[in-house]
Amino acid sequence: MSAYDDLLDRYRRYANLGNAAMLLNWDQQVTMPDGGAPARAQQSAALSAVRHEQFTADETERLLDAVAADDLDDAEAAVVREVRREYERNADVPTELVDDLTQLQSEAQETWQAAKREDDFEAFAPSLVELRDLHRERASHIDPGKPAYEVMFEDGEPYLPLERVESVFDELREGLVPLIEDIRESDAAVAWPFEGEYDAETQEALSRDVLDFLGYDWNRGRLDTAPHPFMSGTQYDARITTRYRDDDPLDALTATVHEFGHATYQLGLRDDAYATPLGEPRSSGVHESQSRFYENHVGRTKPFWQANRDRFVEHFPRHDDVSARELWEAANKVHPDNLIRVEADELTYHMHIILRCEIDRAFVEGDLGVDEIPRAWDEKMDEYLGVTPDTDREGCLQDVHWSYGFAGFQNYTVGSVLAAQLDHAMREDLLVDALVRDGDLEPIHDWLEERVHRHGRRYTTPELIEEATGEPLTAEYFLDYVTEKYTDLYEL
After folding, report:
1. What is the phi/psi pair of residue 245, to 5°?
2. Predicted structure pTM score
3. pLDDT averages per 10-residue partition of the chain, 492 residues
């Protein structure tokens, strides 16, 4: 075997150990009994330590040096680039630190769930501080000359500069804040046709039917519930989770469509490149673009509700008089007073993201104490959305993300911006609305697979965006899209 083949084989073992760890995490959030947490923390830590030691051994460096002299094609060169980056970000991190951090993350998930359930931020605060300190220590081993927060951001978004992302945030803040204010002052009322209770079993049946409509491959996936909706998997096994509210039949459906977008990306990766960089998703922001595309540019459209109005009424016959237009309006109703990010509308959602990023960064950089987080959260909610949570459960304890790490919230907004850019490019090739209205989503899947999914990590993020859309990342299409939609909806 050549040095390249040996290197790829070594990476495959590393990737498969990571995929096994991902399944342990899925089980912890979905099916594991509460009493299993202590053992799961040790199992996850042991697996991470073995994975780290195997990949950062001297043999990996030797193979990287050897393959540098090989005559590689473009795809092979991309694989080596990605393996080298992964190696260089791990080689100087002590295995003991990896072990400690993984075990703490597993324990912190359980601590967070209990703290949220009991509305007790002080119970989670010590874990949060310890996680922050261990992540900062890890960042110092990866690149001691770079701010820790920037190193953490590069974990999920390796090639898109944080500075560029922050400039996108500035554009969105400038465009969205006045639009939200105009909607607040609009005399046009968007009706909310739902009242009473909606049982989880019927909501699940509706979600499953809509997943069929979208084209979910049940042979390689499943639908479950979790405290915080997420997707976990590979191109062979991409699992969706959601959660149900008894007062809102659209909330779980929207979350399900969102996670379907994530699953579609995973399932669209090349089978023959499994456990190699060419068979892995490019970045967190690109991944989020797929979920936001399906959630917003399919699931919140008039054609989607024209196609699914009867399906909705079949499951909830008491709404037999609701129209597709009314369902579309309800799916896009702006709720500036909403406290929960995952339940937020398409516009105010980004104010939720911006406040999280600001608190996240201030805490990591030591400018905000852990005991100051609840107050800072409340103040920023008031500043950006004009509402203040009554409890930490509805405030700074609502997201699971801090039990994993930091500097990742930006990717939700990057994903929304890129989704609108992809939608714009797609509409130059496809009659998207007609396809959705007719329930013929295969051409949409094929377009995304051809432009995004099948490339894996062959391209850097900026290269992939240009490959898919013909231009660099821009907030222009997102701002144009939401301005047009909400000007119509609220008669601005």
Report:
1. -105, 135
2. 0.94
3. 92 98 96 93 94 96 91 95 97 95 93 95 97 97 96 95 93 92 86 94 98 98 94 98 96 97 98 98 97 98 98 97 96 90 89 94 97 96 91 94 92 96 98 98 98 98 97 97 94 87
Within-domain flag for 304: yes
- Are 201 and 257 found together in one domain? yes
Residues in the chain: 492
Q: Do both 104 and 239 map to the same domain?
A: no
Question: For residues 246 and 262, is the Cβ–Cβ distance under 8 A?
Answer: no
10 Å Cβ neighbour count for 255? 24
Phi and psi at 392, nearest 5°, equal -70, -25
- Helix, strand, or coil here: 441? coil
179 and 110 housed in the same domain: no
Angle between helix axes 349-364 and 410-426 (nearest 10 degrees) is: 140
Q: Active-site residues: which are they?
A: 259
The residue to which tokens 């990717």 are assigned = 411
Under 8 Å between Cβ of 347 and 179: yes
CB 231 within 8 A of CB 240: yes
Say if residues 311 and 209 touch (Cβ distance below 8 Å): yes
Q: Is residue 108 located within the same domain as residue 206?
A: no
- Answer for the pair 292, 255: CB distance below 8 angstroms, yes or no: no
Considering its fold, how many domains does the chain have in total?
2
